[in-house]
Amino acid sequence: MNTDCDLLVIGGGITGAGIALEAARRGLSVTLVEARDFAWGTSSRSSKLVHGGLRYLREGKPGLTRESVHERAALMRDAAGLVEPQGFLMAHYRGRSPGRWLLGAGLAIYDAFAGVRSRRYHAADRAAWLAPHLGRAGLQGASTYLDAKTDDARLVLRVLQEARVHGARLMNYTRVESLLRDATGVCGARLQPEAGAAYVLRARCVVNATGVWADGLRATLGAAPKLRPLRGSHLLFPLWRLPLAQAVAFMHPRDGRPVFAYPWEGIALVGTTDEDHAADLALEPGITRGEADYLFEALAWQFPSLALCDADVLSAYAGVRPVVASGRADPSKETRDHIVLDEAGLLTVTGGKLTTFRAIAVDALARLAPRLPAAGRSATGSIFAPVAKSAALAALPPALCERLIGRHGVATEALVACAAPGELARICGTPTLWAELRYAAQAEQVQHLDDLLLRRTRLGLLLRHGAAEILPRVEQIARPLLGWDATRWRAEVARYLDIVQRCHALPREATPGLEHA
C-alpha cells in the first residue's frame, strides 16, 4: 500500500497528542493534524487538575481511580514544574455531605492507591486557620489531602514536543476536508491548510481524536452520535480578592455539585459548572450569565466574608467536555470513561480525562496492533525524556529552572539563550517570562495572536482585558518574529480582543438558550 505515514492522528488536544507520542515512541511514522491550534478546544479549557478522581470511588469504579492515581504520580515525577502537587481542603459542616467519616474512608483508599498518606483531619479552629475566609456557621472541621494541578495547554504542547523528538510530524490549522476510503476502510484524508492548497495524505491507520467534535467526523461514515457535549465554565480572580493557600473543595448549596477554588498561576481559579451545551460546536464557547451567577452563589456560601462580585473577576473561560451519552437526566451523573470505536477502519478515541491521557493512548494503540503490529510494542521509561541542565540553566534560580524545564523540556536552553536583555524577568502580575513570549513566537508554530496569549502563554487569562495593557511590548517582541506587518498586527489585535470579549469576559445579560438548568 502506498502510504505517507503509518498513522494519521486527527486532533491536536491531549488525547491526540498522547496517541501521537506513544505511537512515535514505538517507532511508527506519525502525522498529527489539528483544524485550529494545538489545544484550542477542551484541552486548554479544562479545570487544570491532574487528579485521581474521588468521584469514581463513589461511582463504584476503584480501578479507574487507581489508574488515575498512578498516572498522576507519573506526571508529577516526569513533568515536575508543569504538573505540581496541590493540597486540597474540604470543610465539614453540620448536616451537610460529605461527612468526616465517609470522606475519610474514600481518602484512605485514595492514599492506599498512591502508596503514601496525605490525608489529615483538622478540628474547626485549625480548619479556620488553614482557610481563614471559610464560612464558620456549623463548621465542624476539615479534611485535607493531596492532588495535583497543571497548565493544561502547556501539557499538550510538552507532549507534542516529545512526539516531535521521536519523529512525529505536527501541523496546526490544517483541516480534514474529507476521509479517504478504499476496500479495507478509511486510509487517509484530504487536508486543507489554512494557508496553502489542499492535498491528500494516505495512512495505514487513521485515528479520530477530535474530542467533542468526534461525532462530526464519524457522521461522514454514517455512524450514529455517541457524545453528550457538556460545558464546564470557570472564573478567575486576583489572589488578593480570593486569598487561598490551598485548594478548597465543597458541594454547591443549591444542588450538591462539586465546586473548587484553588491558586493557579498566581491567581485564584474557581469552577466548575456541568451544563448541556447546545450551541454550535464551531463557535468558541464562553461562560453564560447563569453559570457565573451559579459560581458566585457557591462562593458566597463558602466564603461569605469576601463578598465577591463581577468587578473582582479577571477573566472567565468555558470548555466543552466530550462525555459519552448514557441517557441520564443529570449531566453530572454521566460517566467520564473514554471509549474506543473502530468503524470502517476509523478508530475514534474520545471521552476520558486529562490525567489519564497516556493510558488512553496505550489502549488506542492496542486496538491498532492487528493492523500496525508495532503499535502493540511496549514503550517503557518516563513520559518525558530527562533534560540535562547546562551551565546557563544551572545559573537560574532552582524554582524557575524547574518551571521552565517542566513547560519547555528540551527547548528550555534555547528559550533562555534567545532572551533579550531583561526578558528573563516575569511579566508583572504573572509567573510568565517575557522570554517565553519571544521563544513561542520564534519556534512554537504560532499562527494567530490568540495562540500566543491564550495557549503558548496564559497571559490573556491572567491579566485583565486579555492583557491589553502589554500589547505594545508584545508587538515589539513578536511581530518581527512572526513576519507580520502593521496591517496584519492590527487585524490580529482586533481578532484577539473580539475573542476576549466574547469568550473570556463576564456576560452582563442572560444568554438565551444557554442558561444554567
TrEMBL record:
Domain Alpha-glycerophosphate oxidase C-terminal: residue ranges: 390-488
InterPro entries: DAO_C (IPR031656), DAO_C_sf (IPR038299), FAD-dep_OxRdtase (IPR006076), FAD/NAD-bd_sf (IPR036188), G3P_DH_FAD-dep (IPR000447)
Transmembrane domains' residue ranges: none
Keywords, ordered alphabetically: FAD, Flavoprotein, Glycerol metabolism, Oxidoreductase
Cofactor: FAD
Keyword Flavoprotein annotated: yes
Pfam family, one: DAO_C
Keyword Oxidoreductase belongs to the record: yes
Domain FAD dependent oxidoreductase: 6-356
Family classification: Belongs to the FAD-dependent glycerol-3-phosphate dehydrogenase family.
Protein name: Glycerol-3-phosphate dehydrogenase/oxidase
Originating organism: Niveibacterium microcysteis
